Amino acid sequence: MSITDPFSNGGDPAFFASGTEKIKAAARGLGFDACGIASVASEQDDGFNAWIDAGMHADMSWMERTREVRQRISLFLPGARSVVMLAANYFTDPPDKPEDTLRGRVSRYAWGRDYHRAMRRAVGKVAEVVDQVFPGSRSRISIDSAPVRERAWAARAGIGWVAKNSLIIIPGVGSWCFLAAVVTTAEIQPDPPVPDRCGSCRACMDACPTGAIVAPRVVDSSRCVAYHTIENRGAIPPEVARFMGDMVFGCDICQEVCPWNRRAPRSHIRDFLPRSEDTAWPPLAPLLAGSRDWFEAVFTGTPVRRAKLEGMRRNAEIVRNNLCGGASDLP
Ligand code: B12
User: Fold this and answer.
1) How remote is the CA of residue 160 from the centroid of ligand 1, in Å?
2) Is position 78 within any domain?
3) Do residues 239 and 90 share a domain?
């Protein structure tokens, strides 16, 4: 992220404002698009248990193993009182798709540098500001890197609402954003929640090709193309595979059709710009051939690494079949 040092900004009037304002000014200065605060007292059962009990986490057994801590933030940080939620917009334009060879599509969040790494320093800086503003407090951070339910906390912190596709929509920004949390023992004035503005719209539910959004805000991972192409380590069932189209990693359909994303502002974070046309539109041939050198050269440092070469090869085989059946000369 574009980092500026909040501590060097002693002349900024925000520096003299309340603790909350200091934290928010630091978050803005560090490049975050939204920052809100939730009280740990707002934690309550919002359906997470039922989601796990229904097996909607599919084979993500790590979610079941950590279900307790995901529902009791004080198990993550003893004495936790507040959660500072941060969001960073990653919406960028796609590079032009070369028409030279058969290519798949990678979902937008994975075109640039891996967000876990890109955001870590800036999130850590916000945590430092929190610790400094509230002396004696302790904090821990999560950037999709710890058993912290970032969407539930983002809703409680009032930075956006949980949309029908289950993603957080931030007013004026949309849903193309990453979330991160600073959990702290400090008692900080919480922000009010943002009202749900999905109304009667069901565009995401109707557009999902596999019917993975089984009810408003409820995604069944075992039907979700994002789950199968990123997290599933086994075979992808044919009833999902045939709807993957050219999607070789992740899926953006439920965000692309969302009216709140129509006027999404461009991200100002250089790390999230597409690395190359191959990261966004990877040619299928080197994936099908299992070329490790090519894979490392194109995807090292991006979220695509999570699927590993083996997973991407499996996905590429499906995409080749979807695009041209058995009629391709590719390996
Ligand atoms: C597991 C996981 C997945 C799974 C399951 C998805 C799912 N919908 O749960 C899979 C692999 C399918 C997945 C896919 C994607 N993911 Co994901 N994923 C996660 C992860 C690690 C945990 C989510 C989880 O706990 N799910 C279980 C549900 C039941 O719990 P929940 O998230 O807390 O959400 C529920 C509550 O908020 C509750 N709820 C409903 N209304 C209300 C109202 C209030 C007031 C409250 C408090 C709660 C509440 O219902 C919500 C939905 O069921 C988070 C990171 C994290 N640590 O939180 C990222 C995360 C949710 N993923 C993210 C992204 C970007 C994606 C993809 C867009 C990637 C892609 N392009 O392929 C897709 C989107 C697909 C989709 N529509 O969900 C972002 C979402 C950012 C945002 N704007 O919301 C996160 C937050 C990562 C991050 N740090 O940025 N993901």
Assistant:
1) 13
2) yes
3) no
**Average pLDDT rounded to a whole number, residues 79-87:** 98
- Is ligand 1 within 6 A of the CB of residue 71? no
CA 167–ligand 1 middle distance (angstroms)? 6
In a domain, 198, yes or no: no
Q: Does 155 sit in the ligand 1 pocket, CB within 6 Å? A: yes
pLDDT bucket at 16, cuts 50 / 70 / 90: very low
Tell me, yes or no, whether 32 and 169 share the same domain: yes
Same domain, residue pair 89 and 224: no
Give the torsion through C-alpha atoms of 134, 139, 143, 145, to 10 deg. Answer: 180
Question: Could you confirm whether 144 is annotated as catalytic?
Answer: yes
pLDDT band at 3 (very low <50, low <70, confident <90, very high): very low
Tens-place pLDDT, residues 48-58: 999 999 999 99
Q: Which of 12, 144, 196, 246 is catalytic?
A: 144
Query: Where are the strands (E) in 197-322, listed by range?
Result: 213-215, 218-219, 247-249
Return contacts of 14-23, CB within 8 angstroms, 24+ apart.
18/189, 19/133, 19/134, 19/186, 19/188, 19/189, 20/188, 20/189, 22/129, 22/133, 23/84, 23/126, 23/129, 23/130, 23/133, 23/188
The response to whether residue 107 sits with its C-beta less than 6 Å from ligand 1 reads yes
* Atom in ligand 1 nearest the alpha carbon of residue 178: 90
Please state the pTM of the whole predicted model.
Answer: 0.94
Taking the centre of ligand 1 as the mean of its atom positions, its distance from the CA of residue 329, in whole angstroms, is 39
169 and 208 part of one domain: no
Measured in angstroms, how far is the CA atom of residue 179 from the centroid of ligand 1?
10
Residue 185 has pLDDT above 80, yes or no: yes
- Asked if residue 162 has its Cβ within 6 Å of ligand 1, the reply is yes
Q: Residue 195 falls within a domain, yes or no?
A: no
Q: Is residue 19 located within the same domain as residue 77?
A: yes
